[in-house]
Amino acid sequence: MDVFTSAAEFLRRRRPERPVLALRPHAAFRAARWFIANFPGRVLYAAKANDAPEIIEALTDAGIRAFDVASLVEIERLAPVEDAELFFMNPVKSRGAIARAYSDFGVRSFAFDSDDELDKIVQETGEARDLDLYLRVACPNTHSLIPLEGKFGASPQAAPALLLRARQIARRLGITFHVGSQAVVPAAFGEALRQIGQLIVTSGVMVDAVDIGGGFPSRYPHSDPPELSSYMEEVVRAADELAVKHSCELLCEPGRALVAEAESVIVRVDARRDRALYVNDGAFGTLFDAAYLGFRFPAKLIPSTRRKPKELAEFTLYGPTCDSDDQMPGPFVLPDCAREGDYIEIGQIGAYGRVMATRFNGFGEYDEVMLTDEPMLSMYAEQGASEKEQDEMLKSALA
Ligand SMILES: Cc1ncc(COP(=O)(O)O)c(C=O)c1O
Questions:
Q1: Does the beta carbon of 350 lie inside 6 Å of ligand 1?
Q2: From ligand 1's centre to the CA of 148, what distance in Å?
Q3: Are residues 32 and 9 in the same domain?
Q4: Which domain holds residue 340?
């Protein structure tokens, strides 16, 4: 893959027809190093967030060896990673996937949240005695921008009996939860961990592991969460109150926080209509979250011709398909003079960007490049570009 120092340098040499996935694996490496150094337990990567081989390689180079996988395809993709340990944490799996995961890929860690799922795991692994079972429990998702509650998780009423039953089957027994993605308040983790503590005491069942899931935030124009260190302080405090703290391993499975910064998409403006820009990627591509979840992403104009610096303006983006839902309200802040033929770097799409892209209307094909500069926003860089600095960068790009 070709390497450039920035999107602007890339566009000085190329005028790509297709949208471009611009990878910054160094950002994923830095994030993984930070998590490994600061999380008081084992860090798994939630492989659903980004499946680019270069990103996986950066994470493994940084020391990640364990992965939360949701499907057989993710298992097949990650099993070849040296010393990989795979955790099949989707609480509802097909029988065939459980059987193949266990017998063909050596997966031993499985999540469940019901008696039926536990039955499936027991039957499809031939009543194996070497299973590491994780009970997914429901927990409040009130502090997250993307609540994931409702679909999965044993209720506080059902959880004690499930724990008791699984204890008799499992080699190792764990509890897991998910506070929702982009949790913007560290207390989300403390509250969930206290709930787990209560469950352990009331059920009287010893557990060997607590997996606090994902949910750690990244930085976006609409969401500027507290420092990640305050999340770790909250986790350490709450984990210290667990009755099983001395015998229990702590795990986490971040997706977003490890990879959001590690990818931008570079799009071309194919039309301008007032404050709307029609670009060549959208809701059915890498910008699903901007279309359906109200996400705003940082945007940088890379003009196709020299123009005098102008004021900034707020734009809506439309994607390339014929569907009128292919709209990203943003607003995306860009110089007022943006016009057809210009390119835009849209940052922070490393989590749930490329993996969401479909082939709808014949789109969904991307070029790929690697960039060596800093991500547009960062939870980890010493001086992640502030909005003011970004404005200045935009203006100087036009000069
Ligand atoms: C079981 C599980 N673990 C981890 C994650 C990663 O979450 P996030 O990207 O918010 O860190 C998800 C996301 O859906 C998940 O379902």
A1: no
A2: 9
A3: no
A4: 3-23+261-398
Residue 241 burial (CB count, 10 A): 11
Domains held by the chain: number: 2
pLDDT tens digits along 56-114: 999 999 999 999 999 999 999 999 999 999 999 999 999 999 999 999 999 999 999 99
Q: For residue 136, give the ligand 1 atom closest to its CA.
A: 1
Substitution site in 39, 181, 252 for ligand 1 pocket (most atoms within 8 Å of beta carbon): 181
pTM above 0.85, yes or no: yes
Final residue in a domain of this structure, among 232, 259, 286: 259
- Whether residue 115 sits in one domain with residue 61: yes
Q: Is the CB of 213 under 6 A from ligand 1?
A: yes
Q: Are 271 and 324 contained in the same domain? A: yes
Pairs from 94-100 (Cβ < 8 Å, separation ≥ 24): 95/120, 95/123, 95/124, 96/72, 97/71, 97/72, 98/124, 98/125, 99/124, 99/125, 100/72, 100/75
Same domain, 238 and 274: no
Looking at the fold, whether 129 and 232 belong to one and the same domain comes out as yes
Specify the ligand 1 atom closest to the Cα of 176.
1
Are 83 and 191 part of one and the same domain?
Answer: yes
The model's pLDDT over 199-224, given as tens digits with 9 standing for 90+, comes to 999 999 999 999 999 999 999 999 99
Q: Does any ligand 1 atom lie closer than 6 A to the CB of residue 108?
A: no
